[in-house]
Amino acid sequence: VKRVVTLADFDLLCDARADISQPLWSSPAARSAMDLHFKMCCAQEEISRLNIEVCRLVTYIHDEDNYLWMSEEQLKNTNPGLAHQISIVHNVQGQFNSHHLKRLQDISQLSGF
């Protein structure tokens, strides 16, 4: 059975000289404001990380595109069937990649990037 714990259940707080439920920082509004402040700090850190990930994703898309193109070119003479299948994958990915690259370009134009 799980028991609900409240501030009154902590012996350390019961023996304290000051009542910690009275200071302004202990009010629900102040706690909400502190929570919001720390969430905003974490959001700024996350934005910095995502900016790096956007650059990595663009690099990956370009590298994958080049790899598929080079693989197709190398296999055209030795294995035309496999080259054709790579071409199909390359074309399908190209349709999605152009959309994703456009969205990533839009993201890179946002302030804070």
Structural features, described:
With 113 residues, this protein is mainly α. The radius of gyration is 28 Å and the shape is rod-shaped. It is built from 3 helices and no strands.
Give a short synopsis of this structure:
By secondary structure, the chain is mainly alpha-helical. The chain has three helices and no strands.
Entry keywords:
single chain, 113 residues, mainly alpha
SSE arrangement:
Layout: H1 11-14, H2 28-75, H3 80-108
Shape verdict: rod-shaped
Number of helices: 3
Number of strands: 0
Order of helices and strands: HHH
Integer-rounded radius of gyration: 28 Å
Rounded to the nearest angstrom, the distance between the terminal CA atoms is 49 Å
Q: How much helical structure, as a percent, in the residues? A: over 70%
